[in-house]
Amino acid sequence: MSASATHEFPSLIGGTPYPIDFAPSILFSVLHALLIPIFVWRMAHSQTRHFVLVGVFAFTVERTVLYALRANAAHNVGPRISETLETYMQTTLSGSFISIGMGVVQLARSVLVQATKGSDVLAIEAKLKSEKDQKLDSTSSSESDRVSRGRVPPHDGCPPRVCDGPVGR
């Protein structure tokens, strides 16, 4: 059996974008761009903020840009024959898996560390967290009660010791 010269094996990491690649490139660029507000929201809220998100966020932004450039190259002949753009796209397509791999390693490490703590340590941590939450709730409710009764003037969001006195007001 001889190898046929007409049989083409597609590039596993992109290849040259042709006009048929225009619609999928736009679709994937938009889908990756829709993930960006989710990452921004998660980074803004401390309960869902994790260091693992940094690499995945960079991956998402980079893929959004990559697919937008790929759509441009599929639509226009000039960028399609640009060797620099082709090198950038091939490098980022293959290299961005490193950030995803690092995120997977961090998540696996987190799972393994939680698994080695044992049930007694997890129970103690849960108890301490619930006591801390109760203490915070009782402190905030008692201060709001005193403010509503008129015993303590409201502090406009700054700490009491800073706002008390002639300079703070």
Automatic annotation (TrEMBL):
Keywords: Membrane, Transmembrane, Transmembrane helix
Source organism of this protein record: Lentinus brumalis
Name under which the protein is recorded: Uncharacterized protein
Stretch list, region Disordered: 130-169
TM stretches of this protein: 22-44
Domain of life where this protein originates: Eukaryota
